[in-house]
Amino acid sequence: MQRMLSTFRHSIQVGLSFGLMSGAITTLGLIVGLAAGTQSRLAVIGGIVTIAIADALSDALGIHVAEEAENVHSEREIWAATGATFVAKLIVASSFLIPVLLFDLVTAVAVSVAWGITVVTLLSFQIARTQGAKWLPVVAEHVVVAALVVAVTHVLGTLVAATFGNGTAS
Known about the structure:
Layout: H1 2-38, H2 41-70, H3 75-95, H4 97-102, H5 105-131, H6 135-164
Helix pairs in contact: 1-2, 1-3, 1-5, 1-6, 2-3, 5-6
């Protein structure tokens, strides 16, 4: 019984960790890229809603298939990881709507970057603590990846705007 509870908790932890991190980084990249490429609040809102639903379902299915492929988890454990991934991704991705609805787009992007980095930092700190690892290298590694996502998607959004339009919504 204790082993079953432990593996069930592990499945939930896998789903939550993946969903939270993916929700923060993917949505952050989407916001920065769309804002740079379109300067359209509507495009960013539509992108967030779309990614919150479609990517949450996609990631949940991805975790589901990956857990099945390991061939070591019960059906209940697999569905626990699937559900945890979906819920975590949906909630975190949707949380980025708040700054976009409350602020002008430039401010909303800045607030979103701060929020996304905060989520990544807190989750990374928790992972390091759980593993008994030094927290700074773990947090730094994950924050650097998130910062790269922000930088690359900003450049790509700017390039798309320069290549295909004047950078304004039409």
